[in-house]
Structure to design on (386 residues):
């Protein structure tokens, strides 16, 4: 797709804002966002299986995979494509984020359906995003008019990019693997939780990082996972149950007020992975956020850090991470943490080969999609000196 077409999928003021971060590289950044990385990461739950067993079972299923060279619990699966969609049929419109998953070969689940033509079970269908872009084809698993919180709406048969249906795999159902991007897995490695420590995950849903914290502690710590949305709390509990995690306590709360609502709470380490504009998500069909959303998001994120400092023990570690690209939500928030909260940047215990540095902050880590085969991501590790 030509750059002019790609830029049209982004609001003009957002493009102008990102150009301040990337300059002439922005063209390549936007092009990279429109397709997935060449490899898709999953995390092996080493509390239930070994990496070798997971690799063997993927290979037996015909999946091309390899261990990550630097993160021991990460496995990389090959993504093929782009492929043409040759089939025709009735139209099912998926919500944006669901369409981006179906674009990779995932089945379309009922919560991801926006609307569908009149269909019966087994009808051939085309799956499109809300703007009418075709992402896949398949066969319906339900009659039109059926809605629900669970279950498959369309079994995907062709997709632009192809990846095994991980959530239907026996490894996933047995709680032996967890879908998680490589930068998200790396974020918990940077946090470096130790057995016996009290660790807070302030914005914990859907539970990937909280469960990884418990895994790195050998399920022998105290992990407090906070989430405000009741629905997301329930989904996180199901994730933790599937993985067999026992040391994570899920609390429904607005983490911006932890220091007020839990005045005696103190943690050795705190993870702040707050809501953001998610500009780094790949593959991205289009983006609805503009510059105003970026600036508002940055101010929102600072509220979590204010509370995090007050529940972090002196000498404790705080990790701030986002899946977005803007300077304002990343380095701009780091500057706030240094100037207003007196947090000190700390070197990560492991630096992945090829990952970039923050803009003006060599201690931070940037995964820029034009330079690293992963979703766009940002990670900063701080230490509270007093």
């Amino acid at each position: 797709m030509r750059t002019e077409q790609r830029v049209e999928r982004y609001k003009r003021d957002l493009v102008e804002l990102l150009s301040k971060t990337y300059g002439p590289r922005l063209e390549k950044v936007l092009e990279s966002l429109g397709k997935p990385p060449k490899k898709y990461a999953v995390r092996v739950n080493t509390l239930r299986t070994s990496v070798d067993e997971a690799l063997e079972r993927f290979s037996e299923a015909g999946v091309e995979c390899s261990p990550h060279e630097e993160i021991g619990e990460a496995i990389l699966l090959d993504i093929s494509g782009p492929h043409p969609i040759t089939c025709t049929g009735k139209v099912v419109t998926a919500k944006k984020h669901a369409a981006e998953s179906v674009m990779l070969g995932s089945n379309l689940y009922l919560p991801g359906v926006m609307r569908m033509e009149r269909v019966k079970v087994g009808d051939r269908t085309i799956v499109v995003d809300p703007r009418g872009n075709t992402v896949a084809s398949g066969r319906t698993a339900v009659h039109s008019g059926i809605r629900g919180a669970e279950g498959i709406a369309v079994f995907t048969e062709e997709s632009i990019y192809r990846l095994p249906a991980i959530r239907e795999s026996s490894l996933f159902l047995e709680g032996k693997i967890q879908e998680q991007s490589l930068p998200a897995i790396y974020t918990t490695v940077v946090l470096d939780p130790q057995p016996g420590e009290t660790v807070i995950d302030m914005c914990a849903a859907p539970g990937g990082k909280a469960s990884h914290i418990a895994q790195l502690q050998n399920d022998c710590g105290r992990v407090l996972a906070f989430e405000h949305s009741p629905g997301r709390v329930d989904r996180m509990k199901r994730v933790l149950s599937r993985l067999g995690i026992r040391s994570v306590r899920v609390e429904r709360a607005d983490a911006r007020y932890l220091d007020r609502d839990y005045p005696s709470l103190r943690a050795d380490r705190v993870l702040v992975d707050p809501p953001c504009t998610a500009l780094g998500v790949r593959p991205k069909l289009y983006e609805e956020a503009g510059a105003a959303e970026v600036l508002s998001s940055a101010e929102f994120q600072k509220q979590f850090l204010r509370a995090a400092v007050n529940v972090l023990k002196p000498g404790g570690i705080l990790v701030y991470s986002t899946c977005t690209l803007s300077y304002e939500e990343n380095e701009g928030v780091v500057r706030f943490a240094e100037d207003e909260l007196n947090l000190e940047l700390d070197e990560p215990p492991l630096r992945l080969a090829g990952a970039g540095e923050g803009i003006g902050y060599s201690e931070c880590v940037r995964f820029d999609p034009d330079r690293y085969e992963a979703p766009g991501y940002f990670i900063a590790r701080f230490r509270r000196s007093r």
User: Anything to note?
Assistant: The chain has a mean pLDDT of 95.
